[in-house]
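Hi U.,

Before I forget, here's the chain from the pilot set. I'm dumping it here mostly so it's searchable later in email.
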Amino acid sequence: MKITTFNPLILSRDAESIISLFEELGFEKKHNKEGGDFSSNRMQDANGFHVDVTEVNVPKDMTSIRMNVDNFDEAYELLTARGFTTSEPEARNTGTSRSTMFISPTGFTIVVAEHLK
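Structure:
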């Protein structure tokens, strides 16, 4: 399995205020992906650092790690073998990607996605 992206991901009901803050810090919106119940914005600064801000129905803001991989099934096996659980019974498939949030035994989260070609 190859990791192709690894950066912070902020989940919030109010993504626009977080996006505004990161714009003031020098980040620009680079890409937006809309799904049925989410809107995700990839942001980048002049140094090449990335942060993703996703508007989704969560009880409170949450910070996670975004990790894109070239083989979702391999990542799933590796993480679940180490005690991670998933937030959804099935991976979310948007037609262009498969993804789900993995929760570690100690509570940190990684959102794993594979872009489908």
